[in-house]
Amino acid sequence: MNNTDIDWSNLGFGYVPTDYNVRCHFRDGKWGEIEVSTSDKIDMHIAATALHYGQEVFEGLKAFRGKDDKIRIFRLEENAKRIRSSACGLMMEPVPVELFKEMVLKVVELNARFVPPYGTGASLYIRPIELGMTAQIGVKPASEYVFIIMVSPVGPYFKSGFKPTNICIMREFDRVAPQGTGRWKVGGNYAASLSAGEKAHSLGYSAVLYLDPKEKRYLDECGPANFYAIKDGVYVTPASDSILPSITNDSLMTIARHNGIKVEQRHVTVDELEHVDEAAACGTAAVASPVGEIDDLDTGKKYVISKDGKPGPVTTMLYNTLRGIQNGDIEDIFGWNTIL
Ligand SMILES: *Cc1c(COP(=O)(O)O)cnc(C)c1O
């Protein structure tokens, strides 16, 4: 039942207030009780490490309502593991997997009326964050943390249809350092990507395709999404220490293999784009966002991927299969959904 006055079909990707969020504090060496809050504010010390030294990690996952009216949460265990890895990367206290799962289920259950109806293309976005809370001026890890999960209903990503957009390569910006924080989901990486992203948007591109920050020879990822290409029928996606391991990319690779498509995770050079049949940016927000053209702004080279302005057949199949599993329309043979 959705008893709210939200216009589901016109929902964007903004913050929509819901009834509750859930929180848990790490103090005196242990995690406390789960707290349910109706406030969308937090009370924190002005000297907290999250504010001064960027001790902040986050996650993003979604819940979907099926035709059967049941709510399905996609691969939450993977997000639980990844935020632990991110936390360890920034010397933060990792949230136990069981606590993460319990809190996700609780916050979705409490806000069930905000899980959009089946058929609208909308979903409930689940955003866990962890912050270093200790008041200190010296540069060292906090001893106190808070883990919060907020949710917000979000509209369908492809409002004007599932179709390709153009992206660009720019060598003047790096998102992360070669042995830096790229493999972890940290807010600071996003702050570091804003100037490149805004420049790309102002030039009419939907995203930046970053190159590896060391040699600038290999493809890394598309800002907040991984990148893959279909080349001679093979699913090719960059292997790199400076990209975030996307759960969507992992899911698409699994679906590809299951459909007899070979998968290669390896270094991919910029030149290889010359011989690519399809390409897409993949992540929770869009699943797969097909790429029409990739413009290298430094060399002037334009790689035309989609000749007819339509998504390719492999990307379309992968997208439909993954969305079908999330909605409960296609059998969840990989056991990815947690049904509420
Ligand atoms: C979250 C994120 C992705 C996508 O990961 P998913 O698990 O598929 O949502 C890709 N790259 C970066 C940098 C990210 O932060």
Description of the molecule:
- With 340 residues, the chain is of the alpha+beta class.
- The protein has 2 domains: 3-154, D-amino Acid Aminotransferase, Chain A, domain 1 (2-Layer Sandwich), CATH 3.30.470; 165-327, D-amino Acid Aminotransferase, Chain A, domain 2, CATH 3.20.10.10.
- The protein has helices at 49-53, 76-89, 97-110, 187-202, 247-258, 313-327, and strands at residues 21-27, 30-31, 35-37, 56-58, 61-65, 71-74, 123-132, 145-154, 165-169, 207-208, 226-231, 234-238, 263-266, 278-283, 287-296, 302-304, 337-339.
- A hairpin with a 2-residue loop joins strand 1 (21-27) and strand 2.
- Helix 5 (247-258) crosses helix 6.
- The longest helix has 16 residues, at 187-202.
- Pyridoxal-5'-phosphate (PLP) is lined by residues 60, 185, 221, 224-226, 244, 246-249, 283-284.
Can you describe this structure in just a few lines?
With 340 residues, the chain is an alpha+beta fold. It has 6 helices and 17 strands.
